[in-house]
Write a structure and sequence with these properties.
Pfam families: 2TM
Helix content: 55-70%
Strand content: under 5%
Largest sheet: none
Protein name: 2TM domain-containing protein
Structural class: mainly alpha
Radius of gyration: 17 Å
Keywords: Membrane, Transmembrane, Transmembrane helix
Order of helices and strands: HH
Length: 72
């Protein structure tokens, strides 16, 4: 049995997906560093999560804007 999903054209917008991803990254990063600052500043653990997430954002950017597939 095949399932059909009704996906609107707005939901299949890679540029919008990147903008949302980047916005969440920009909003969450200061919160992560604030939690680190308020709890224990002996080891800078937010650098690991932030740098890994930044790599993900960079690859998302490259996939959307640099290496995008041309639609026929």
């Amino acid at each position: 049995m095949k399932t059909k999903f009704n996906i609107s054209p707005k939901a299949n917008n890679p540029k919008l997906g990147f903008k949302i991803h980047f916005l969440v990254f920009l909003l969450a990063t200061p919160i992560i560093f604030l939690i680190w600052y308020l709890t224990d500043t002996t080891y800078p653990w937010p650098l690991w999560s932030t740098s890994a997430w930044a790599v993900g954002v960079i690859f998302h950017y490259l996939g959307v804007f640099v290496f995008r597939k041309n639609k026929i």
